[in-house]
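Example for tutorial group B:
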């Protein structure tokens, strides 16, 4: 029994690790699969859609990928990185109104990744 449980946990961990996020187009195509679940969704944060209310620390914006758009509401501090027209990952749930309620907003900074020639770049 213990061995079966360990194998199961290993498979689940590998599955969760391998799917760090779901692109907006895949999320939209499979919304029913993710209903009620906390999920990470990745896309381009469109600068023209950003609205921020400093009093309530609420930011609304649209993530876009593959021709699909996802309206997002995020409550929290504005990211310190350049976030407009950047790739971003949001973590949260799709609300009944069709707006993704994000508890986390992470900006993907391309200069923190390794370049194709093998040299690391840091920003």
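The residue assignment follows.
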């Amino acid at each position: 029994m213990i061995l079966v449980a360990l194998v199961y946990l290993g498979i689940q961990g590998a599955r969760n690790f391998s799917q760090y996020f779901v692109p907006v187009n895949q999320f939209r195509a499979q919304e029913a699969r993710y209903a009620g679940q906390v999920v990470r969704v990745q896309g381009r944060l469109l600068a023209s859609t950003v609205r921020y209310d400093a009093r309530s620390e609420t930011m609304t914006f649209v993530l876009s990928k593959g021709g699909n758009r996802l309206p997002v509401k995020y409550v929290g501090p504005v990211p310190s990185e350049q976030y407009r027209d950047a790739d971003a990952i949001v973590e949260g749930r799709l609300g009944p109104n069709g707006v993704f309620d994000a508890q986390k907003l992470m900006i993907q900074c391309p200069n923190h990744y390794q370049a194709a020639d093998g040299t690391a770049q840091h920003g």
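The chain has three helices and seven strands. Compare this with the pattern of hydrophobic and polar residues in the output above.
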